[in-house]
Design goal:
Blueprint: H1 3-15, H2 31-46, E1 50-53, E2 59-63, E3 72-78, H3 91-106, E4 114-120, H4 133-138, H5 157-163, E5 181-189, H6 194-198, E6 202-208, E7 210-219, E8 223-224, H7 236-254, E9 257-259, E10 263-266, E11 272-273, E12 276-285, H8 288-309, E13 312-321, E14 324-325, H9 328-339, E15 347-351, H10 357-360, E16 366-371, H11 387-409
The protein binds (2S)-amino(hydroxy)ethanoic acid and manganese (II) ion (2 copies).
The site of one manganese (II) ion has 4 residues, from loops.
Length: about 425
């Protein structure tokens, strides 16, 4: 079986580890997460790595460089998913990283750094609403308030750690030190149509969009659907619906990307005017100022709609990650990797999707390799990649790692105790 066939087959295998019988969902600190870590750990060790699960639930593997204890180039992605997920978002990057390590190991290449492969425990934030919990822990950026975040069953992050067999008090053991890393490289599907539309396979990521997420509440007054005249209604759902349309209009006009992905009306009776609506907002942009200016316009619009309809509006920030530029030297290595596949003039553009690199950048410089996914579809079971694109991505990723090694061979790295 070719390496790319093996990667495709392993994506299928991971897709069977799901909490849902008819669709893929694997969230942070779930039994399915434990099963995926075990399988990925086995693949890491077959590839020649020493393996461990860190105190944040990230599955890790390490291949020593020319001598033991050198700082590491971190490579990988995440293995948690959104609800009803595709099978490549995150997982493909982990499997490509393992395949690169396996190639380097079996060729006996002595890199001027160690290779550390990581399968991040939480990037999507599906379970606790806060994304990047795995990569933020690894980067040493942990906020103790996150321990009391709850999932839909009221289980806190701290309780979920214990259920998973992890001790919250030991979390600092997951924090890595900057002097032990030379950088982070991640391969990921594009999750947008730029590559597919251009009929190109691979691209260099220039930066990752900044995002802010909010829980919003529109409150009116519930009442009888038949007996309450229109001029006496304070229908929270009609107000919230206007707000949803405004989010799209304002974000389109400002070049940002706004999405209301969740909306629930209460009390939820077919013959009851909705008295309260809870809805989410995800707003992203290439530049943080652009995103924040649009956010102010959305709040003004919410206020105006609510005043006009006799409603009230509240919001609570759930998540914020600022835009992150990729490191120029690592981007050059990724571009060299793509060139080695025969593409002399690699495409380069910013990522509209969020990635673990947004957290890892607090630890070490980052860069990313994108590969095409069919029609740009992602966060959907129709997510699809071509086996031949996976083969090209593997060539490019390995060549990028070797290019980073080339950048380091001029000035040998100091040895660092782990
Ligand atoms: O939501 C995102 O951008 C990512 O896929 N986690
Ligand atoms: Mn995703
Ligand atoms: Mn992802």
């Amino acid at each position: 079986m070719s390496e790319s066939d093996l990667i495709m087959e392993r994506c299928e295998q991971l897709a069977t580890i799901s909490s849902q019988p008819d669709r893929l969902e694997r969230v942070h600190l779930s039994p399915q997460h434990a099963a995926a870590n075990a399988l990925v750990g086995q693949w890491m060790s077959e590839a020649g790595m020493s393996t461990w699960q860190d105190p944040a639930g990230n599955q890790c593997g390490r291949l020593e460089g020319a001598e033991p204890g050198l700082p590491a180039l971190l490579i990988g992605s995440h293995i948690d998913t959104v609800p009803d997920a595709g099978r490549y978002d995150g997982m493909l990057g982990v499997l490509l990283a393992i395949a690169v390590a396996r190639r380097i190991h079996s060729a006996g290449i002595r890199l001027p750094f160690a290779l550390e492969v990581v399968a991040f425990s939480d990037e999507e934030g599906t379970r606790f609403g806060m994304a990047l919990l795995g990569s933020r822990a690894l980067a040493g950026h942990w906020d103790d308030e996150w321990w009391s975040l709850t999932d839909e069953n009221g289980i806190t992050v701290a309780e979920a750690f214990q259920d998973f067999g992890l001790d919250p008090a030991r979390l600092p053991g997951a924090f890595r030190r900057p002097e032990n890393y030379v950088g982070y490289l991640e391969a990921h599907i594009e999750q947008g149509p730029i590559l597919d539309d251009a009929d190109r396979r691979l691209a260099v990521v220039t930066s990752i969009a900044g995002a802010r997420r909010y829980a919003m509440t529109v409150t009116g007054k519930a009442g009888h659907a038949g007996g309450t005249p229109y001029d006496r209604r304070h229908d929270a759902l009609v107000g919230a619906s206007e707000l949803v349309v405004e989010v799209e209009r304002l974000s389109r006009a400002s070049g940002t990307i706004g999405t209301v992905g969740r909306l629930q009306a209460f009390p939820g009776g077919v013959n009851v005017i909705p008295g309260r609506v809870e809805l989410s907002l995800d707003l992203r942009a290439e530049f943080d100022e652009q995103r924040d200016e649009c956010l102010d316009l959305i709040w003004d619009a919410a206020e105006a709609i609510c005043v006009r309809r006799g409603l009230t509006f509240e919001k609570r920030e759930l998540y914020r990650a600022d835009a992150v530029p990729c490191d120029p030297s690592l981007m050059r290595a990724v571009a060299a990797g793509i060139r080695s596949t025969g593409d002399d003039d690699p495409l380069a553009f910013w990522s509209r999707a969020g990635h673990d690199g947004m957290a890892v950048v607090a630890l070490t410089p980052i860069a990313m390799l994108f590969l095409r996914c069919r029609a740009g579809v992602s966060h959907h079971p129709d997510e699809h990649v071509k086996r031949s694109d996976v083969a090209a991505a593997l060539e490019a990723f390995e060549a990028a790692v070797l290019a980073v090694a080339g950048q380091h061979s001029v000035a040998p790295l100091p040895r660092v105790a782990r």
